[in-house]
Amino acid sequence: MEYEVEVEKSTKKIYKERAIDVATFLGGPLVAGYLIAENFKAFNETDKVKKTWFYVVIVTVLIIGSIFFIPDSKVLNLVIPAIYVAFVHYFVQRFQKQSISAHIISGGQLFGWGRTIVVGLTGGVITLLFIAIIAFLAGDLTDKNMDLTSKAYGKLHHEIYYDKTNISENEIDQIAYGLTETTFFDNEYPKSVFVAKKDSNYEITFSVFEDAINDNETLSLYIHLKNDLQNYFSSNKIVINLTPDYNVNNVIKRIE
User: Fold this and answer.
1) d(CA 209, CA 217)
2) At what angle do helices 47-67 and 113-138 cross, to 10 degrees?
3) Phi, psi for 209 (deg, rounded to 5)
């Protein structure tokens, strides 16, 4: 006997398979967990929501943990996302495809691509910040002898990491003011930077995707940021460092 899923017409919106695939690629497994869980809620399968998050958290921890043990490789940077996107696609096909089809056939609505992209990108930013925090705590970002601390600014709690034996909190507050006035610290996405003082220079290190570091448009944005920041510091030279892996000892591009 052929099994059929019966779904009453729902006023709740859901995410279609393709939307989940794209959002997962943009934002990682945490985004996949959120979208899949939202679908289960819409299907009134609340018992599966907690299970979804349980497995998603485990997978996320494993993936983030592997970043610190697997040698940096562009191939792996593509392979790992491809693997978890393929797994998520299989999961959705296996456990939600029939319910999604029934929802659509019954006249149920779908979330638009705009919301899907925003969710994916936001999840990606959150995941990157989580990785940054782990890197800082693990000592990947700085020298072991540093007395590393951080301070948050603004509604989104933008963070500045610094060695308090190297630079004063008052100077960090001034730099945060400059980053706010130049709108780098905005109200759209939380950001984090590392600041160090060398002689009278303020060196600000930003983590940027490796492919973007040598992109002319990206470099132009950071050059403008450096020049705008310099207007707030007449006695100190501003230097911007770009690194792909939250490591101040692995600066790929230096703007001064």
Assistant:
1) 13
2) 50
3) -55, 135
